[in-house]
Amino acid sequence: MPDRYHHRPVLLDATLSLLELGPGDDVVDGTVGGAGHAGAILERTAPNGRLVGLDVDDEALEESGRTLRPYGERARLVRSSYRRLNEVLEELGMTRVDAILLDLGVSSRHLDAPERGFRFADASAGETPLDMRMDRRLPATAADLLARASAEQLQSWFSEYGELPGSRTLARAITEARRQTPLRTTSDLLAVIQAAGIGRGRKHHPGTLVFQALRIAVNDELGALKEGIEHSIEALAPGGRLAVIAYHSLEDRIVKNAFRDAVRGCLCPPRQPVCTCGKTPRLELVTKKPVGPDEEETRSNPRARSARLRVARRREAA
Ligand SMILES: C[S@@+](CC[C@H](N)C(=O)[O-])C[C@H]1O[C@@H](n2cnc3c(N)ncnc32)[C@H](O)[C@@H]1O
Fold first, then answer.
1. Strands 97-103 vs 236-246: parallel, antiparallel or unpaired
2. What is the C-alpha separation between 116 and 125, in angstroms, rounded?
3. Is residue 258 within 8 Å of 266, Cβ to Cβ?
4. In a domain, 194, yes or no
5. Ligand 1 centroid – CA 180 distance (Å)
6. What phi, psi does 313 have (nearest 5°)?
7. 65 and 105 part of one domain
8. 242 lines ligand 1 (CB under 6 A)
9. 170 and 123 in one domain?
């Protein structure tokens, strides 16, 4: 069986050093996955630092549970979205933490498991269900969205979440095709993409953008990210650090803008003479520009290629 889990975590050294972890720190890994980052964090915060690991995926939590067993009570794992980080910490009686990591998106485990429906360029595409839920408790799969969404809704997902040229054409082609027969497998969807002429003559497989858009819609990834960053900022102790690793420009833009707003504080229009929003600066940037992988990591881990790490520090109370 291929080793699905033991990949080197993306941007591990940069993340650990920019989080400035030390013995006794309390840390949240909001996307614990296979616990590659989490294990390294627990080493840095030994002997008594605690780690709360969140994930929405049951299989990821089984795996991280096994990996983190040697750390005993120092590691707590919770099946939850990081968008509910505040509630989880409250239930655990932890009000403020020293560092938070969000390593976004799907894991290689998801991509390597055809039955989860995240991959399309595969000989098994005819059997691969259009699922794409990271949290299998979610009520709607990608196939459900494709069956129910209006052409307008589909178009807006493809153009906003996939930045796909031909979004309107594809949305219409899908609503036409599903009148004949439901789209159930990745090859059903690929056939519609191809027949609609989407991506013809382009370098990248057109499925890449379509699948990205559907995955984001199924998991409400961008909504979760906005809420997750906000709760993370609030959960940091003064001087505590938040690190976010993004894998595409839509995610990175949200991180960049959320950090910028929290650095600036007041969000009133620049010409307004008196502040009415009452917001004060909460963060300082640790990375002025996003940190990417070096050549060696790019070569050895294709998934790291598009990674962008941003880190910010919670200001001392004003
Ligand atoms: C890139 S992987 C993390 C890999 C991890 N850092 C490691 O070292 O193994 C992202 C993980 O985040 C999880 N995830 C995605 N969205 C989430 C959310 N909103 N809340 C919690 N976990 C989420 C996925 O299920 C996946 O396991």
1. parallel
2. 11
3. no
4. yes
5. 37
6. -120, 135
7. yes
8. no
9. yes
pTM greater than the 0.85 cutoff = yes
Provide the sign of the torsion angle of the four alpha carbons 41, 47, 50, 56, taken in this order: positive
Please give the number of the atom of ligand 1 that sits closest to the Cα of 82.
Answer: 20
CB atoms within 10 A of CB 271: 5
Give SS3 for 276: coil
Instruction: Give 233 Cα–ligand 1 centroid separation in angstroms.
Output: 19
Same domain, 22 and 100: yes
Is 105 in the same domain as 225? yes
- One DSSP character per residue, 146-161 reads HHHS-HHHHHHHHHHH
pLDDT at residue 30, rounded to an integer: 98
- The residue whose CA has the least distance to atom 13 of ligand 1 is 31
Torsion sign across C-alpha atoms 299, 301, 305, 308: negative
Count the helix, strand and coil residues of the chain and give each as a percent rounded to the nearest 5.
Answer: 45, 15, 40
246-302 pLDDT tens trace: 999 999 999 999 999 999 998 899 889 899 988 899 999 999 999 999 999 999 998
Strand pairing class (308-314; 283-285):
antiparallel
Region at 199 (left for phi over 0; alpha for psi -120 to 50; beta for the rest): left
> What local confidence, expressed as pLDDT, does residue 125 receive?
67
Residue at which a domain ends, from 219, 247, 268: 219
Query: In terms of residue numbers, what domain contains 53?
Result: 12-109+221-314
Q: How many domains is the chain partitioned into structurally?
A: 2
Side-chain-side CA neighbours of residue 308 (13 Å): 15
Same domain, 133 and 210: yes
